[in-house]
Amino acid sequence: MSGAAEGLAGLLDQLCPMHALLDATGHIAHAGPTLARLCPKEEMTGARFLELFELRRPARSATMDDLRALAGRGLHLMTRGAPRLPLKAVLTPLPEGGTLGPSGGALVNMSFGIAVTEAIRQLNLTARDFAATDLTVEMLYLIEAKTAAMEASRLLNLRLQGAKAAAEEQAFTDTLTGLKNRRALDPVLTQLMASETDFALVQLDLDYFKEVNDQFGHAAGDHVLQLAARAMRAETRKEDVLLRVGGDEFVLILSGVTDAARVRDIAERVIARLEAPIDYEGQPCQISASAGGALSCRYPHPQAAEARIMEDADIALYAAKSAGRGCFRNFEPSMRQDREARRSS
Amino acid sequence: MHGLINRAIERFIRDTYGRDVWALIVARAGLGFSEFEAMLSYEPALTCDVLAGAEQVLDRTRDTILEDIGTYLVSHPKLDPLRRLLRFGGVDFVEFLQSLDELPGRARLAVPDLDIPNLELSAHGGNIYQLRCDVPTAAGPGFGHVLVGVLRAMADDYGALVVLDHAGGGKDVEILQIQLLSEAYSSGKMFDLAAGQGT
């Protein structure tokens, strides 16, 4: 290279360290220091440019004339050797006469484009490998800074979500018994309907609970309610939903149950447990329970029968109460007729 | 005050002295909650209350606590992402010092509502630098002390040997004196440009 050309190369090394000076035959006369990191310098200088770099877009080129025709356009290259890295480039033809670099050659300036992180990792580049005006390092800073800030925001969102879930859980829970409360009834039924899960709904009222309250006070009443909740939990499965919907009124939703005999069995076992004498501070309390059940599978369109199922279980509950309390009744259509007959009489 | 700053104080105390000590400070400051959220904003008075509580519980002066917070921010392994962000400032310690003017802008790029006081570096020859921090006195003095800790830890990180002093200040300003004894005193800590980009 002539003195002038060497001066130019030195200048370019500083301003665009990823450049290559090509001679008129398309061979690399000089490579900038960062570009030279791609392969050993002795292999790069003197090599044919298109043998080291594949021109992928805008057009495959074979000759120096092809290349020079692409002057000023954005080029997409790919290194042919390892590591395989995509590069962005722009090419400027050099004038004839050799006053500015190899006569009839070209200057190609390159960058890693969007693959810069991968390139930095593969080539172990540092900030010094980029021109002082290059924004690559700032871009890397920004990516890291934003990632850290996003992570902090993501954690905040998770915590807020957790707090919301805890608040909702609390709002749907009866704090005395730990069962779900009346507010939870609609969401629970809606979910069962949405998933088209069959269920049995049992309405259960404690019998003689008012007497316990009157005789021993509210603390005794609370104690009895807690034991009643425990009895219901003991006789049901984890997937069943137990709700305390009023003072001494409970709803048991037995999911997946379609057999009336099974509902009777579960309800009667709950009632038997509730009838066991309860000891409150040395005083025996005695309660019982009446219950009525309805099966969702008995309704042609359970999705539209939510209110009806509740009502029928309620009718069955009253049938159980009129039968002398302490017992369970499955709903039968005749019960509805009986009730209507009573009403009209 | 930005939650990140409050969170930094909290994490420093928890990681250095334990949760029990943090609970004592929270109680003394009368916070009513036990954890700051990094991405929320808080009343400036809360930060003062926490620092006052820390002074009493730890029986240390505010200046030394703040300086330790600065060191903690750069050197604790849990906060390596922050150290990395600072290292993007320059390839060596001098370049890093010269990039401090950009620090408020860099902080805003990451978290738009994070206000860092304006910083201005002046060179005084003989490897002596002065860093001027525009800290509104009303916000409570102290940022300069945090910065002393940060710079000391960053000098270690770059492997530079420096003498750092908080040289007081005046109304709305704090001055730091920095004397660079050796730029390559030790090998410092590794900094891979792409290490923080995941895989």
From TrEMBL, chain A:
The keyword Nucleotide-binding applies. Pfam families: GGDEF (PF00990), HNOBA (PF07701). One of its GO terms (molecular function) is guanylate cyclase activity. Keywords: cGMP biosynthesis, Nucleotide-binding. It comes from the Bacteria. InterPro entries: DGC-Regulatory_Protein, GGDEF_dom, HNOB_dom_associated, HNOB_dom_associated_sf, Nucleotide_cyclase, Rev_trsase/Diguanyl_cyclase. This is guanylate cyclase. It comes from Roseovarius nubinhibens (strain ATCC BAA-591 / DSM 15170 / ISM).
Automatic annotation (TrEMBL), chain B:
GO terms for molecular function: guanylate cyclase activity; heme binding. It comes from the Bacteria. SUPFAM superfamilies: Ligand-binding domain in the NO signalling and Golgi transport. Pfam families: HNOB. The lineage of its organism: Bacteria, Pseudomonadati, Pseudomonadota, Alphaproteobacteria, Rhodobacterales. This is Heme NO-binding domain-containing protein. One of its GO terms (biological process) is response to oxygen levels. One of its GO terms (cellular component) is guanylate cyclase complex, soluble. Residues 2-159 form the Heme NO-binding domain. It comes from Roseovarius nubinhibens (strain ATCC BAA-591 / DSM 15170 / ISM).
